[in-house]
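Exercise 7. Predict the joint structure of the components listed below.
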Amino acid sequence: MSAQLQPLAAPLLETTRRLIGALQHEPSVEMRLALAKRLVRQLGDEAYPVFLKILLIVAESEDSAAKQLIADLLAAAARRMDLPSGPLSAWGGSSGDGAGFAPPGRRRLLGPIEYLTVWHCQQTQRPMLEEALYADAVRKLLALFDLNPELRELYAGKLGSDAGGELEGTYTRDTRDILNRMAQRWRKPESTPDEVVRAALRGDAPDAPVPPGWIVHRL
Amino acid sequence: MSLSELQSRQLAPSLEVGGLHALAGQGLAQRLPASHGNQLLGLDVWAGTSAAERVLGGNAAALPGGGAHLDQVVGHILAPLG
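Solution:
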């Protein structure tokens, strides 16, 4: 599936290494935050998934210092309610190529988890994110974010607040439901990333056996 | 401290990257159309590496001494992406 982008693997890895190196050399939290936000800005609106991929590369690494560095950085950002964010078109906007794009003014800035969830659940300027990729990405990000308890608490609280709020035109009901279930489960101290993702996507109800031949849709 | 203040500040001396331009990442959006977002997330950049090789810190390409502005550092970080 990713063969087309395989040539990007080495550059992405090197970019991630350079980011970690730069962050490790910078003692000021404010400057680290400014650096991360400038990086996102310089990537451009349509390339925010590259930033998400960088976070995932860190999450997939075996570098505990790098992981802690990123978790602590995002905790500082969450404390300031200033997580590095990317824009997706509001769900009221149409999707597709060309004229169907929502105008830039209707796009909303979303943090990593919210961005992935809207990307997965809603019609935006991007083709919808497949569930398997969504689940895998969120699971890895949650594991990364769990390294800083304050980040976990703040981010889970934000997701719950977003899901319960009335951000007109930002989230569909399906997105709200997922974010709400995710927030509730993530707040439970003993919950693992896998459990959080499962609860977010399927709810906590036990799976009922499906009669042979039935096709079940999540409505 | 405001962001505008930060923008005019120099980073720690070890982050000198003089000579690197600040626009390295600008071509990426054009090379990464929206339809490739799914593929990007699915890309395994660690394929073929052992656990011991999956480290990120300590060996980043030269971040030589001296002061560098934020844009220069970001340009250096994004340079591999062209």
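Discussion. Residues 3 and 44 of chain A are 24 Å apart (CA to CA).
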